[in-house]
Amino acid sequence: xxxRATTQAPVDSGADTIAIGLFEGKNVSHDVDDGALQAxxxxxxxxxxxxxxxxxxxxxxxxxxVGLGERDAFDGERARIxxxxxxxxxxxxxxxxxxxxxPHHVGDxxxxxxxxxxxxxxxxxxxxxxxxxxxxxxxxxxxxxxxHHDIGETVETxxxxxxxANAARDLQNSPSNxxxxxxxADRARAIxxxxxxxxxxxxxAEIEQAGMGALAGVARGSQEEPALIVLRYxxxxxxxxxxxxxxxxxxxxxxxxxxxxxxxxxxxKFDMSGGAAVLEATAAIARLGLPVRxxxxxxxxxxxxxxxxxxxxxxxxxxxxxxxxxINTDAEGRLVLCDCLTYAIEQGAERLVDLxxxxxxxxxxxxxxxxxxxxxxxxxxxxxxxxxxxxxxxxWRLPLDPGYAEMIKGxxxxxVNAVEDRKAQSxxxxxxxxxxxxxxxxAHLDIAGVSxxxxxxxxxxxGSGFGVRLLVExxxxxxx
Length: 480
Description:
By secondary structure, the protein is of the alpha/beta class. The chain contains 15 helices and 17 strands. Helix 8 (213-219) runs antiparallel to helix 10 (333-346). The longest helix is centred in the middle third of the chain and has 22 residues, at 152-173.
């Protein structure tokens, strides 16, 4: 879809449908046909309450009037929701070209929100379905944002970031028989070729030779080749610390020998969502030319039961030398991540963020509203949390504590990979990872509840691409 900004009036944009928003207590700013739009408001058909919609025809155009609610409450996230609401109606009307009239006196967050909400809501994953002629005819082809001043750079940035999130959704939604670790590595290579990034991919032999016994232990049960995927973005004008982005990419998670229940196991293809977000966020950072060095490390594997699979009671040795007793083979994500975090630090990462669909406990705690945040550094946690607030990918911090670290101490090895009574499930998982990052400022994002089917207006079903926009915003803040 084409996305552009203009300083032309909406009626001169060439769009077949124009969307205008109304705040509480305000009237239509630029009316047409002797007050046709305001008349719709005065009649009560168009209302100012948030997400209330009305449609009319005037000046040879179709108009969608959407309520924006109270001005003081309207921010980037509400703009995304309003845009998604308008797009749903526009699709029903057969809109091909849509123009949003930017409300007066709003910030760049609203500009970005209108673009992101439209691009994200327009997303469809149809790679395995036939498209009907009717669907072809109702596909939105162009979005224009009309403003009195030049907003071109903001619109373009929002387009790049939203399309990166949609690219992550493509990776998430692809079935695991196609989206194997090797295919994920191919995607990394394609990003590297397109954007001239350094790409490194290790297979099973290299992973084992590198002493990554935790990652290798998870991969042992699958015939699919695992992959340690590394992308390096090093612009010449970079400033600030090296940003290490680490993603869990278990392309299918059966639970291994500690096998999961059959119900909804098909959704375990989404267990690579953290890795998908890291790859596509790195691509967006490079496309935008942000002056910050990024080291992206993704651990990709399946977690399968087989005669070669790791078993409860096995002891693995991580790359750091730490020994790990496997209590539950379904607590595999932290085994993947610990070796990736160690490698990222060895390669020079000075600030770390990991993203993982790590625990069911975080879903129970926060549902689809917040992702869990745990960190060893208050300032870094605040910076990461602020990036999430800016993009609508909200984080809620949970504590780390020596008492929780005590709970993962092992009887037969240094640590265990799970607490058998499942108490403080998400926090003890983070304490496991904490063991491997030392003093490097680190934030762990448990995205299990928000990575898919999160019910948001612009990402209601399937993969959500959660984390892509947050990571790009974080990189932008680090480069400022």
